[in-house]
Every structure is written in C-alpha cells, then in structure tokens.
Amino acid sequence: MSSDRELPQILKQRLFYQGRKFNFDVATLRLPNGAEGEWECIRHPGGALAVPVTPEGKLVLVRQYRFAAQGRILEFPAGTIEVNENPAETIKREIEEETGYRAGKWQKLGQFLLAPGYSDEIIYAFLAQDLEKLEKPPAQDDDEDMETVLFTPEELEKAILAGEPIDAKSISSFFLARPFLT
C-alpha cells in the first residue's frame, strides 16, 4: 500500500555509535508540514529466523538469556545476517549452531520489520522441516547462553497466550507458520 503523501526531508544524518552488530544514527528531518526535529534509528543488517519442525511435529526453540530483558526468553533459532550472506545461508548456519538440528526442507514464510519505530531491522522467516539431529552439534558462540526445548504447536500457542516471555519475532513467525503445522 503506497501513499502519495510527501516524505520528510533528511537535512542531516550522523553516525552516533558504531557497534558490533548494529549502528545508531541520528537524523534531523523536516516534515511535510515544515516542522523539524531529530529522530534516532538503530541500523541493523537484518536477521533470519527458522520455525523448525521435527518429523513428530514438535517445534524446536531455544530458551536464551537476553541482557536487555534481564532474563531467559523463549525464541525460535535466529541470527544476524553477516556481510555478503543471504538470509537463507544465515539461518541454515544458525539452526545448526543453536539447536544441533539440520533441515532437509526449507520454505520462506515471509519477512517483516521488527520494530520500525526505532529500527530498520528486517526479519526473514523460514519454515524448516525434515529435521535431523546432528551427531556432533557445533559449539555455541562464546556470547550465547541457551538451551534447546521442544513444544507442540498447541503448547507454544498456550505459552504465547499466557504471556510467557517469548520475543515478538518468534510469535510473528509462529503465526506465519501455523497453517503449515499439523
């Protein structure tokens, strides 16, 4: 859906912080009504996420410590897209690293902006099926603290509706995958 409305004009943009995984920009904008102000944005290369389904119909998730939330969050395996990497390559790497599973069948579910009020991050969601457990899973990254957990689709939906700590990208992707889950 597009609009014929005029877009704000960028008057000035500066890099405020350059981090390991994202940058933080501050821009001065002039709105179509003439008002000017500063807007902040987290610039992120994007991420890829898998909704992994075992042959028995169980969903493979990770329970991961997240500093910003000061606790462990239930999530589908996901990762940041590296330089010169496409989202499909990212998630094939991440699912093995984070869960110890490899998928034989992949289907793109869609993509969505994660938090457009302050970030340009796009999540690319995939359905991962025909899973096989790796004999020797790769070691987790040094900065990761996670455990693999299995849920039926019904159990996960109940956890979401009960307000369990589950991140938005996983909830969104679960509902994108729901029509394909038996």
UniProtKB/TrEMBL annotation:
Pfam families: NUDIX. This is NUDIX hydrolase. Its cofactor is Mg(2+). Coiled coil: none annotated. Its EC number is 3.6.-.-. It comes from Microcoleus anatoxicus PTRS2. InterPro entries: NUDIX_hydrolase-like_dom_sf (IPR015797), NUDIX_hydrolase_CS (IPR020084), NUDIX_hydrolase_dom (IPR000086). The lineage of its organism: Bacteria, Bacillati, Cyanobacteriota, Cyanophyceae, Oscillatoriophycideae. GO terms for molecular function: hydrolase activity. SUPFAM superfamilies: Nudix. Keywords: Hydrolase. The keyword Hydrolase applies. Residues 42-175 form the Nudix hydrolase domain. Gene3D superfamilies: Nucleoside Triphosphate Pyrophosphohydrolase.
